[in-house]
Amino acid sequence: MSDPLARLRLMTSARVALGRSGAGLPTAPLLAFQRDHALARDAVHAPFDPADIAAALKPWPVVTAASQAPDRSAYLRRPDLGRRLDAESASRLAPGDWDLAIVIGDGLSAPAVHAHAAPVASRLIERLADWRVAPVVVAHLARVALGDEIGARLGARMVVVLIGERPGLSAADSLGAYLTSGPAPGRRDSERNCVSNIRPPHGLGYEAAADTLAWLIRAAGRLRLTGVGLKDERLDQARPLKPPPSAPNIGVGGE
Asked: How far is Cα 73 from Cα 64, in angstroms, rounded to an integer?
């Protein structure tokens, strides 16, 4: 008799219909769980190399920065330190007349940032050729809200933060993009838009991510707001009850 749940397993990377061996899991699903758990833990603690990101973005200018977290251990225990710039980094960010600032931060998955951030940033900059885009800031030990202070210090009207998302047991290399209008310290998560699960081929692709972000950025520029007051209206025009598997995960989010 064929397995009636085989089709379901092909449609999702979630752990469904794993079966059982006695009171426990069969050996193969158990080993897969242990492997993915190890990958998630490794992603959280993986080293971040800002120079590698800067090289991938050439010839676009890049400024490096760091949060107030002194090391990875403090960053994980004290999220507040990851939301503020250290003094040296703050002194290097000169204000200008910028429409948009792009911040790339390691977040909770440096592998996700190394794999996906530069391709997304490059494609986004291409789509905003008529906008004044500041030099990209590559930030070490960064939380999402670090972009608020960076955007404010650069004098940017909007900031998008590309950052490694919290690893899960089905994805350890997922990139998130957080868009905030009028960046300033103290912005709430409800004032941001999030495009998540950027990780081709298993998640949102680079072209689709850049298209979505460019649309949101231009709409935010017209409305002068982001967050709960801004949504991607393109999604309302295409089968809202049955979105395609590659549809972006767009919402309001934080870290």
From this structure: 21
